[in-house]
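I am writing to request your help with a piece of structural work I have in hand. Thank you for your consideration; the sequence and its tokens are set out here:
=====
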Amino acid sequence: MEVLLANPRGFCAGVERAIDIVERALQQYGAPIYVRHEIVHNKFVVDDLRRKGAVFVEELDEIPAGATVIFSAHGVSQAVRSDAESRGLKVFDATCPLVTKVHVEVSKMLRDGYEIVMIGHRGHPEAEGTMGQANSGMHLVETVEDVAKLQTRDAAKLSYVTQTTLSVDDARVIVAALKARFPQIHGPKKDDICYATQNRQDAVKFMTPRCDVVIVVGSPNSSNSNRLREVAENMGAKAYMVDTAADLRPEWVAGKRRVGVTAGASAPEVLVDELVARLKSLGAASVQPLEGITERVVFTLPRELARRR
């Protein structure tokens, strides 16, 4: 058995920044540091930060007045920001800058009088945060069928944005459906799907034809990890997602000649290393990292946390 490693894989700049914000806040202010929602969607990362003193909550009313709270990488609504201010909470915003870019787009579109269609997954915190940039005038669509049922005030004043972690191919189909039904619809100047999501999906497309099976390292609630599995499946491969190496079933790889491995943008490389070790114990004789794009994106930290530790 040979293992092929997709490149790039694993942590992106937005995830690294979000985790760094929590760790630096813990070092500078001490535990507990409250985090609204999982900082990123990965169980290993969240459990590690919890051991260090982070307290994860879903609602701000779980946080004592005057405490420190960090908003997760997925972003929050304007209502959450207002609530945090009214409660006197000290806020550090770990929203990925590429999600913030979408929020800025939404604000501008609303100021210009547009209704906005958000292409995203209902219930996902990023979609909820982006929809929450407006009190009204936004519609969420997940499928082409949703586009067909869409009711708008003025088709000439319609625009769209997308969740940053969607499947590039799925988003393209929905955008095409929107443009077919609303020929005058406006889109963002630059694609909202983030560079890391795009790069990891492209890497899976490059790797999958060379593999008998693809294993994605990622937690079940990670949107971008689920999309990687779907990309491989859509190319006709058997594809599975594992939170850790312990989740790998031997029968998935039994008798396989080549096993492809990748990881979602919220999954640390240590989990990939553990999966590769498990595959070696199941008969993998070699590991081949594939060529791919080198990512050099770095996002700045909040000024108060950026000073030398």
